[in-house]
Design goal:
Elements lengths: L1 E12 L2 E13 L4 E5 L6 H8 L8 E10 L2 E2 L5 H7 L4 E4 L3 H4 L6 H13 L3 H14 L5 H4 L9 H13 L5 E5 L7 H18 L2 E6 L2 H7 L2 E6 L2 E7 H6 L4 H8 L50 E4 L2 E3 L6
Parallel strand pairs: 3-8, 3-9, 6-7, 7-8
Antiparallel strand pairs: 1-2, 1-4, 4-5, 9-10, 10-12, 11-12
Helix pairs in contact: 4-5, 4-7, 5-7, 7-8
Length: 319
């Protein structure tokens, strides 16, 4: 369904150019859930925004690559053509629902807008459909909620409204950018179960952007691990958890507490800080933080290469 090849997005700033997305390639099949994982600043959200061509220009620009959606290159479409795809065939659930929802409009108007805009339904029918959608995302009393404003909703309810808006036109691809940010653990599980269930019912593909490896283990079919704008490892979720091949992936997993581990066992943090994207080292971007790094790691960025069935890693120490 979605085929991304060598996607490169740069931002021009006073200090020079920042490559936020650096030759990223991945595929997403119909009905599949792909998780994109990494620390803050690794390029996850910029990759998602690039797919929908929502990069602010200036200062940002998609400089290279291909984004093929059902065989159509999204980078070659006109502004009007890409607007017809956004919210219709590809929908995005943004990271913070309070800042993504318009505080001056009722939730019903915002959920119904894609149906009015893309489906051509009159507003009376769009609002009825919005009420039904709020019911589908298991919001209590949808008939009254449709006339409420975002500030009258809790964080979990606002996120449900965002999911309802995303599902309004039955999109073929849903991109969820940290959909459980700032929600308590119980609500997180409810939201993710709901999102996965709705995607499965509609046979939509799902790209789940997160830094939570627990979420990945439960909901993802495949995983792409990003660092400094690049994908450094990709594999089926079970394979990645049983046999991570990149030192960064192993570091992420070692820094997360496990219920089945010794309660007195100390977590192992990844030392150092993510690199400055405006001044990346000439070799592997992770080398300054990597305990396995050798001199060759500092010479050139390692390519992403196959290290097992459907498993690739960008590390010269793996092969």
């Amino acid at each position: 369904m979605l085929r991304v090849r060598n996607l490169t997005t740069r931002f021009r700033i006073d200090r020079g150019a920042i490559t936020a997305v650096n030759r990223v390639s991945f595929d997403v099949d119909a009905g599949e859930t792909l998780a994109i994982v990494g620390e803050s600043g690794s390029g996850k959200s910029m990759t998602a925004l690039s797919i929908l061509r929502l990069i602010p220009n200036p200062p940002g620009r998609i400089e290279d690559g291909e984004i093929l959606f059902d065989g159509l290159d999204l980078l070659k479409l006109s502004d009007a053509e890409i607007r017809d795809i956004r919210g219709n065939k590809i929908a995005m659930i943004f990271q913070e629902p309070m800042s993504s929802l318009n505080p001056a409009l009722t939730v019903g108007l915002q959920v119904g807008e894609p149906i009015n805009r893309h489906g051509g339904a009159p507003w009376s029918k769009a609002l009825l459909a919005a009420r039904d959608l709020l019911g589908r995302v298991r919001m209590s009393d949808p008939a009254s909620r449709v006339n409420a404003y975002p500030h009258q909703f809790s964080g979990g309810m606002r996120q449900r409204a965002m999911i309802a808006m995303a599902m309004a036109c039955q999109p073929r691809l849903i991109i969820a950018d940290e959909p459980t940010t700032a929600l308590d653990v119980t609500v997180q599980a409810q939201i993710l179960d709901l999102l996965k269930d709705l995607a499965l019912r509609s046979r939509s593909a799902l790209i789940l952007i997160t830094h939570d490896l627990g979420v990945v283990a439960r909901y993802a079919d495949r995983v792409a691990v990003m660092y400094a704008g690049r994908i450094v490892e990709t594999a089926p979720a079970r394979e990645l958890y049983s046999r991570p091949r990149h030192p960064y992936t192993r570091g992420l997993m070692a820094s997360v507490p496990r219920l089945d581990s010794d309660t007195h066992q100390r977590l192992v943090p990844i030392e150092g800080q993510p690199p400055n994207l405006a001044a990346l080292p000439p070799g592997c971007a992770f080398a300054p933080r990597c305990r396995q790094a050798v001199d060759a790691c500092k010479q050139a960025p390692p390519p992403l290469r196959e290290v097992g069935p459907r498993h690739s890693a960008a590390c010269i120490m793996e092969g």
